[in-house]
Each structure stands twice: as C-alpha cells, then as structure tokens.
Amino acid sequence: MGDSAGGNLVAQLLSHILHPVPSLGYDIVDIPIINPEIKLGGVFVLSPWANIIPDEMKTHNGGTWKTNHKYDIVTKSTLAYVGNRVLEAVRRRPAVLEVLYPYLTHAGMRKDWWDGLEQRVGRVLVSAGEFEVMRDDIVEFGRVLGRVHRDVEVMVVEGGVHDDPMFDFLYGDEVEKEARRELKRIVKWTRDVFCSL
C-alpha cells in the first residue's frame, strides 16, 4: 500500500519488478533485482502521485487540474515544487533522468510497460478523490493497468479529496457513516487479499 508519493513509489516498485532498473553508473548504488518467482497478493495505491515530473504538469491545465484546484487539499503548485525538489539530483545527470523517466511518471506511460503485471500481482486497487486535482491522471493510470490485468479496481471516492479515505480512518467516529462507505470497501478489499494468500 502506498498513498500519494508512496503510491508513486509502489508504482516504481512494480515497474522495477517488470523492468529491473539497469545499472546507472556514477555513484548510484545498483538496485537489486526482485526474485521473479515472487508474486504479490495485492497492491493498493491511494491517491497515487501518477506524474512526479513537474515540467509535464505545464500540460495539465485542463480536466481535474483546472476544475478541482479550489477543492483539493493538494495544489498543482505544491506538487510542482515538491516534484522539483525530489528530482533535483537526478536532473544534474540527464542520462540518468532519461533511464529513470518511465519509473517516475505513470501518466501517459507506453502501452506495453505493464505487460506481465498480472503474473506478478494478484489484485490491484487504485483510489482517487472526486475533487482531487490528480483524479484524471489517477483514473487513467488505473485504466492502463486494467488493460493488462483483469483484477484492477479503480475507485473514485464520492466528494473526496486527496487521500480522503485516510481521513475517514483517522477521524473515525466523527465521520458520517455514509462517508465511510469507501473506507469499508478498502478494508474489505485488503482483508480479501490477505485471506486469499
């Protein structure tokens, strides 16, 4: 499970499982290859940061980037700032950024990138808030995964913002029962994944 930037890290892990990151040289430690016999029971990404490359956000002036900016708790400018900070060291070496690019951004990924995912992961749950600025990117990420994996569920939380089900969990009794519907769905999904192992 990963939320927000952690959701991006989960997607990076899945990318590495399918396409081991090659040796990058410089002073960068090689990333160990993950045993190809291992199959994860399930992966849940809550409001995953599907596009960590801030320069590409310049093209995101429509859709939910435009309609949801006044409702969400995360803004486009915040994501661009943090994304630039994360990528600062990588940008100093353009050859490294070129190699790592498909591991960092999952919006607009090449169509065959996720081939083989179903053999490595049992189930996938992708969640976005209805009023989240990244909703369109997240839903598209889920659709792309769904093209190569028959057990991908994309859940859009009605009235939700970035990481919304987490707030339901944290505030528990203070949240209306109807609003907790998605949290219950996530808990059931998680239980079903663990009980099937």
UniProtKB/TrEMBL annotation:
Keyword Hydrolase belongs to the record: yes
Domain Alpha/beta hydrolase fold-3: 1-163
Record keywords, A-Z: Hydrolase
SUPFAM superfamilies linked to this entry: alpha/beta-Hydrolases
Gene3D superfamilies the UniProt entry points to: alpha/beta hydrolase (3.40.50.1820)
Protein name (database record): Alpha/beta hydrolase fold-3 domain-containing protein
Lineage summary: Eukaryota, Fungi, Dikarya, Basidiomycota, Agaricomycotina
Example GO molecular function: hydrolase activity
